[in-house]
Design a protein that fits this description.
This protein is α+β, with helices and mostly antiparallel strands. The chain folds into three domains: 183 residues, Hypothetical protein af1432, CATH 1.10.3210; 140 residues, 2-Layer Sandwich (Beta Polymerase, domain 2), CATH 3.30.460.10; 99 residues, Ubiquitin-like (UB roll). It has 20 helices and ten strands. The protein has a five-stranded mixed β-sheet. Strands 9-8-10 form a three-stranded antiparallel β-sheet. Strands 6-7 form a two-stranded antiparallel ribbon. A hairpin with a 5-residue loop joins strand 6 and strand 7. The relative contact order is 0.09. The structure holds manganese (II) ion. The site of manganese (II) ion (MN) has 4 residues, from loops.
Length: 501
Amino acid sequence: MESRTAEDKALVKKAYDFAMKAHEGQLRKSGEPYFIHCFETAKILAGLKMYPVTITAGLLHDSIEDGVATEDEIRKEFGDEVLFLVNGVTKLGKVKYQGVERHIESLRKFLVAVAQDVRVLIIKLADRLHNMRTLEYVRPDKQKRIALETLEVYAPLADRLSIRKLARELEDLSFKYIHPKEYKEMVEILKTKKEETLPRLEKFIKAIKKALAEDGMTNFTTDYRQKGVYSLYRKFKTKGSDIEKIYDILAARICVETVADCYKVLGIIHSKWRPVPGKIKDYIALPKPNGYRSIHTTVFSGDGSIVEVQIRTNSMHYVSEYGIASHLTYKKSGSKHIGGDNDESWFTQFLPKIVNYSNTSTNKTEGVPKWIKDLGELPKNIKTSEDKDGFIEDLKADFFNERIFVLTPKGEVVDLPRGSKILDFAYAIHSDVGDHTSGAKINGKMVALDTMIHNGDIVQIITKDASKPSAKWLGIVSTTMAKRHINNYLEKQEKMVRKIK
Ligand code: MN
C-alpha cells in the first residue's frame, strides 16, 4: 500500500509539472495564468476525494485542447487510462448545448458520451465549476449561455448523481447570472432570515444536545445547514412567494453512528418537542430516488418558532454530500462509515509535498496555496499505521460500468443498474407510477414492460388506474426499490383478501 501511495504521489506531482509546462505563457480572461484553471479543477476533484488518476486527468484536462501537449506525450507519460479521461472530457466539451427546446437531445448526447466512465463527467463538473466561479471575466452574452447550460444540464446531473456539494454551487452561480434580480432578493432574504433565526436555532440545538445527553447518548454531532440560494428560490415559487411558509431555511442536523441511533434521536426529540403533523419524512426507510437518506422532522421548538431537524448517520451524511463520487473515493476498511470530516483520504497525505514543490519551482501559484495549507493540516489526524494501511484497494470505475442513465420525456435523468427493465424505471420515478404502469415507450416506440432499457434512452411510462402489480412483475424487475414496492402491494392485497374471507 505504501508503494502505491508513493507511486500516486509521483503521478500527481508529474501531472502538476506537465500541465504547468503545457500551458506556459497562456493566460485566462481573468489575466491569471491558464495553469491556475487546471490546478483549481484538480483541487475541486481532490475536495471530492477522487483517486489520483482522476486528479491527474483533472490537471491535464485542457493540456491537449488548449495547451501544447500531444496525445502521444500524455500516453507515454501517464498511460492510457489518463489519456482516455482527458479525451473524454475534451469530447464532452464539444457536445454543444442548444437551448432549452433541444435540452433533451443535448442531454442524451451528453449521457452517451459520459457512459463509458463517470469519472469523465465528474472531471467535467469540476472544470465547469471553476469556469462558473470565474464567469465574471467572460463576455456578458456568453455568460448567459454558459450559465443556462450549467443550470439546465450540469447542475441537474450533479444533483442526479447526488453530488450535492457540486450541484448547490453550480445552481447558485448560474442563478446569479440568469436571474440577477431574483438572486439578490433571495440572498437578502437568506441574510435577514439567518440573522433572525440563528440565535434561536443555536439555543434549540443546545437543548437537543442536553436532551440527548440526559438519555445517555454521547456519540453524536450537531450542526446546522443553510438552504442554497437557488433551492430557496425554487421553494419560494412553489410556496406562492410566502417566505413565512418556508421552515427549512436553516435546519438543525444531528449525525450519529448507527441507523438505530437515528430513530432513538427522533424519539427523544418528539417526546420533548411536538412535531408538526405531516412533516415527518423517513428517507432512511424510503430513500429518495437519488439515494438520499436521512430523517426529516419539523417541530415546534417551544419559543414560538418551527424548526426542521435532520437526523442521519455519518456515512449517510457523507454520501449525501458526495453522492456517486463517494463510491470513487478511497475508503478505510474496518471503519464503519466512509468519509466524515476526520476520515482522511489518502490524497491529503502528500499535498504538503506539492506545496513544497510548487513553492520552490515557481511563484505562479502564489495566493492559491491556502487550500493546500488547509489540507496540509489534516494528516495529523492519521495516527496509526492502520489508518494508512486501511485504504481499500480498488473501487474505481467498475461501479459505474454497472450504471445506465435514462431520461424522462421532460429531460429528467434517472440512473439505474445496467439490465434494468421498464418497470424498474417506472418505480424509480415514483411508486405510484410503478404500481399503475400499463405500457411504455422507448424513444417513441411502444414496448413491453419487461423490455430492457439502455443508456441514453428516453422512456415514457403510460399509467392506468386499473393497472396493478402482479406476482409476475417480481420476476421482471431487478432493482430493490421496485421489488420492495411490488412486495408491499402484494402483501396488502393478500391481507385484504384474508379479511374478506
Ligand atoms: Mn477547462
